[in-house]
Amino acid sequence: MVSLTAEEEAMLGGESGAAVAKAMELLVRYADALGAERFVETNNIAGVPGSSPQWVKDHYAADGGDYRAVFSRYDLDSDEVVDVPRMNAFSCHLQGGMDPEFWREQGMSEAAHANFVSDSAQVEAHGIQLLKTCTPYLAGNMPVRGEHCAWMESSAVVFANSVVGARTNCEGRESTSAAMLARRIPDWGFHRDDFRLGHHSVSVEVPVDSIFEWGMLGYYVGDAVQDSIPVITGALSDANLIRHKHFGAAAASSGGVEMYHMVGITPEAPNVEAAFGGSARGERFVYDAAARRRIYEVLNSVGTSTDVDYVMLGCPHASIEQIAEIAALIEGRKVSVNSALWVFTSRAVKAAADASGYTKILRDAGGYLMTDTCSAISQAVPKGTKVAALDSAKQVHYLPAMMGIEGWYGTTAECIDAACTGKWRGRLEGRLA
Amino acid sequence: MSETIEKPRLVIHGRKVVGGVAEGEALVTRETISGWGGIDSNSGTVIESRHELKGVSFAGKILVFPGAKGSSGWSNAFHLARLRGTAPLAMVFTVMTTKIALGAVVMRIPTVTDCDADPLEVIRTGDWVRVDGDAGTISIWDRKPG
Prior knowledge:
- The complex is a heterodimer.
- Chain A is of the alpha/beta class.
- Chain A has helices at 6-12, 18-34, 54-59, 67-75, 110-125, 154-164, 173-182, 211-225, 241-254, 272-276, 289-299, 320-330, 347-356, 358-364, 375-378, 393-403, 412-421, and strands at 39-41, 45-47, 91-93, 150-151, 184-186, 200-208, 230-236, 261-262, 284-287, 310-313, 341-345, 368-371, 387-390, 406-409.
- The longest helix of chain A has 17 residues, at 18-34.
- By secondary structure, chain B is α/β, with parallel strands linked by helices.
- Chain B is built from three helices and twelve strands.
- Chain B has an eight-stranded mixed β-sheet. In chain B, strands 4-8 form a two-stranded parallel sheet.
- Chain B is globular and about 40 Å long.
- Chain A binds chain B through residues 26, 29-30, 33-35, 48, 56, 59, 74, 77, 151-154, 157, 169-175, 188-189, 226-227, 252-253, 255-256, 302, 376, 398, 400-402, and chain B through 15, 17-18, 32, 37, 47-49, 68-76, 79-80, 83, 95-99, 101-106, 108, 111.
């Protein structure tokens, strides 16, 4: 059984109100399920509090069928409906269901949009930051090393643990909503030092430099180590935020990697010894030319048609640097009449793209810069889509399976080329071909 | 009531994750399961492209598997399955994660882990299984007893 401080006992007893008590009840059940012995305090929460499609609200019709009912009965898994106050922790809303401006283009109904507007107003009224992104760290919530967080979104979790050295498990909707009220999360997993040490080695023996290469390596690593912690050494170069973003998202999708060490690159891996907490252990995997080719083939195994009718970029949500690159690639060109181009980002980054002129360049070319969501989250693709081109291994992993379409994986430039020509001409070329 | 109740083939013991008692037919897989993007909550069916259970429903079954993988939407996808009435009856798993712990809690189904025998070895799809979450016991029959 999890042990509680006097303050936590008081919260559970209702001294901070009924909603906080229900939040603590759920967190105690969760901590006991994990076998956690105590809680850690956290003031950095990212989740999807209270947002729900209409059918979930209808499910709780007898309880009022509103935000309050859903937050109580679903988010807090409470048998009673309680008044939900403003959140007590610094709380952020991650990605949502549609673009606030281009929802019609995404095929959303008036009713679904009205529900979206209503949920957004409630999120705002409860003191939750409307970041609406899978990349909170690019939109105003960058944690620091050692900070205890409670985040959802596997790609953001792996980034926070690995690149920043912040501490979060891969939390879920209900635990993050409860933590927003109680400012507590079970002291288990990545909150603890020994849990963060490496399990297996990955030796990189082909040059991995671009976003495209980092994405493929991530997909390989996740497949190799599943949900354990890899310690990666070798021919990795040009580390930056975007490359880490694509690597981590891919590794979290093909396996379930929630933390990785790159020796000499990530903060908890100054050397191999530090990454493992001693000498290397576990298995040793080698990423060589053959492994690289195999991963490329796996990522390009869903489909055969080279007639691309949809290009989706921005998984995880594009950074301003990526949007600048996309704008440079497409300026003066036009999206093919046989294709469509949707680029996804956060509202914060879109504001910067608007100010920098990139949104207009993209629009003039016939593409869209959208926020809040992506095709996988919203299950929205342009009408009649059969073949998509993507520059994200994570999106290739999910979108074709979810939507029953074909998918190609390539570089951002290959994807822009496909958007403008309607043809896929990507290949694994260059020095290793 | 018959006077002799058929003895289980085997009883194994583990740790309670979520209490309660349920019994039903086992569905066993050696592969972890994704929640969001990996299952259809409406039908309680695995949809992941290369999964050995693709197209198979876990609704009303005792789900025996290594555990959860993939998106942080795991608990949400299985919680929605509970609302739709397509959740498993109980779960037995081998690898603890935050995803499966939270998912088990919000589905409110008897769940056991840390067993004294490998459940993936000793339980077969189609076995009749009784999971007592509070006691941490899993009783296994070849078929529904009595």
